[in-house]
Amino acid sequence: MIQKKICLLGAFAVGKTSLIKRFVESIFSDKYLTTIGVKINKKTLSVSGQDINLMIWDLEGEDDYTKINTSYLRGAAGYILVADGTRPETLNTALSIHTLVQDLLGNIPAVLAINKADIEDQWLISSESIDNIDKNLTVIKTSAKSGANVELLFSTLSHNMLPIEE
Amino acid sequence: MSATILENLYSELDIAVFATSENDLFTCITTPPSWLLHFYPTINKGSHLSQHELPDFLQHFVFDAEDHWQRKQKGQLKSGLWMEEGSAGSEYLLEATAILVDDDRLLLLNVIDQDHSNRQEKQLMRDNLLTQEKLELEVHRRTQQIREREEEIAIKLIAAAGKRDEETGAHIRRIGLYSAEMAKELSWPQLLIDDIKLAAPMHDIGKIGIPDNILQKPGRLTEAEFEIMKGHASIGGDMLAGSDIPMLNLASVIANGHHEKWDGTGYPNGLKAEEIPEAARIVAIVDVYDALVHKRVYKAAFPEAEALAIMDEMAINHLDPSLYRLFISIIDKIREIKDQNQDDEI
What we know:
- The complex is a heterodimer.
- Chain A is built from four helices and six strands.
- The longest helix of chain A is centred in the middle third of the chain and has 17 residues, at 89-105.
- Chain A is an alpha/beta fold.
- Chain A has helices at residues 16-25, 89-105, 127-131, 150-161; strands at 2-10, 38-47, 50-59, 78-84, 110-115, 138-141.
- In chain B, strands 1, 2, 3, 4, 5, 6 and 7 form a seven-stranded antiparallel sheet that branches.
- Chain B has twelve helices and seven strands.
């Protein structure tokens, strides 16, 4: 079985842990409990007929006082950037982190999740901002609360991490 | 220091110490602290763990630790914090430290924040940050709402003032939007961009002081009539001057200066080149454009190419050539504004 380490990265309180809990345990809670350090979860999924064992690293979110511990990123095969659609600054944070990780790890597969799609009518991230994102970065609107596109998020990244068959 | 004192010290500090050698086994060399038993219920002093029996995070850290030991690096290598779930479902915040003592490769594990006070503090800090963010967004939203209301009121009033000649609401709105687009391209601060959007439409407000027989004359003005008409620039400038509101001061500057010409032959003050305030130079350009591409009582609307050909000539002496080049560089956006804000009657 293939094993791949992936990291979830983004500002604090964007829903990284909620997305993981939805994906791994199919549960959701409205209560915000901040992540300290990192927590590792595991899930196996099947992509293109192959089983992939995902080691999902849920990293503490960035705020004004806390930046990513880059040692946690070593060995990652891919990563998910997460932004909160109702907080425009979190998109900037996600894109800064993307640049940082690319500088560190090179052009490994990444997907950007814009979370809280269940309240898209309250989003403050404009369609224009989303359209202006580098086309090389796949953007998926997710909702950890409703589950919308959460499977798609992880399966898309997993698919992108599979070696290309010649 | 005796072994007993060391043992007691480790116990007090609640640290688990593992020693490893080249065979990848980790031997517990201290009496296991109680928290470690939640992960390894049968572990004792002297027990061995293979690398794959370590928590996933530690397996990852050991890779860096090996490097640290092999290079015989001085000092400690810390893993950073990680959360691990014990057998009873409770969570522990842990940290590992790799250290080389003489030639002994040691891995120290300890629990951080047993009483959760650190975690609670961080939770509170982040809750407060979130609240602050929400408040800031709400302030921004309400400020934006007030701004939009002011803008609408201003546009309606200016349009009412311009009812006597051909200053339609759409024309007024377009002048503001064109000017804001130019200001954005010039990297003006957002506050000033918002101000010019509202100030630029007021450029002809001084026409209130011009008699109907001159303002509404369909034919060419006589020299004397033109002199009176020229007065609208300083009338507008005076009307809008002397306010504490920066936007109105900007409007005053624009009203006063939008008929000045680059070569100094304009009015009311014969200012030349960069003596003319930039905002006035911007409005001069966009006002000419809008007048040329729209119908007036004295002329039909020019096709854009023809309008720009006329403006090309004007950019030699009358319009700021550099700003005119900028205007041309964003002509697609200008055209979009024109098309999306077509003339209507109020």
